[in-house]
Amino acid sequence: MPQYERILITGAAGRLGTILRPGLAHLASKIRVAGRHPFDDLCPNEEEAVFDLSDMDATIAATESCDAIVHFGGASVESPWQTILDASIRGSYHIYEGARKNGIKRIVYASSVHAIGFHEIEAQIGVDAPVRPDSLYGVSKNFVESLSRLYWDKFGIESVCLRIFSSFPEPTDRRHLWSYLSFDDCVRLVEASLTAPRVGHTISFGMSDNKVKTVDNTGANHLGYRPQDNSEPFRAAVEAKTPAPDPKSLSTRYLGGFFCELGHPDDESASVR
Questions:
Q1: CATH superfamily of 4-272
Q2: Where does the NAD-dependent epimerase/dehydratase domain lie (predicted)?
């Protein structure tokens, strides 16, 4: 018997949304997949909702009759301020308003390592460390983490904010050897966030069981997430094809990697034009 009647997945056409669709299918009678363009690969238990997160009315309408939301939509990388504002900040506010108005009691949000990217690797921070964003993208994650805190304290909507590190089919550089989150472990993490009996307002790091540990995730143990993958099968190949990191570079010193070295995205956009 599915735990939910209907789960909304935003960003369902993205890299992680695509793997969450089949991965979470057994948890709900219906999966409502959301994106800005129609889907041409709907499964029998899926229904689509096509809208832009910046459209408040359309976003709230898409949350109707849902029991939970897996919010993976919005800007997926560092982007110009207007994109961050519309897609990630306004869009996430619209999601939470939809949850409040439609009685939805749990949201799983794709936050990011970039919310705390300017912490040094050796600091071994926990989930309660002060935020230190490394980009406007990271700032948008901080905003939604704070928004979700408000909506739990004031309106009783539970949230799990997943600070995802590097989720790809396999590691491609040396940083990924410690920051890797396999696709299967990503599904396990989101499923744990949806099925834990009580989450309140939880922040969790999103990584597989890699050999090198750079953060302390014990503050999220109540989720019951148990990663089953790690980066070790890829280590030899990655180390053979990539140079040793410069220990003095920002991308080596800080959790956020190369995001810590990026300039302001609007300056970069202006130079392209």
A1: NAD(P)-binding Rossmann-like Domain (3.40.50.720)
A2: 7-170
| Whether the model pTM is above 0.85 | yes
Distance CA(205)–CA(127), nearest Å, equals 7
pLDDT for residue 41: 93
Write out pLDDT tens, residues 4-45.
999 999 999 999 999 999 999 999 999 999 999 999 999 999
Strands, sheet with 46-50, edge to edge from the N-terminal-most edge strand: 46-50, 28-35, 4-10, 68-71, 106-112, 158-164, 201-206
Return d(Cα 88, Cα 143) in angstroms, integer: 9
- Cβ pair 161, 143 in contact under 8 A: no
Cα–Cα nearest to 175, from 246, 227, 76, 124: 246
Distance CA 36, CA 13 (A): 9
Q: Please give the positions annotated as active site.
A: 137
Query: Backbone dihedral region of 204: left (phi > 0), alpha (psi from -120 to 50 degrees) or beta?
Result: beta
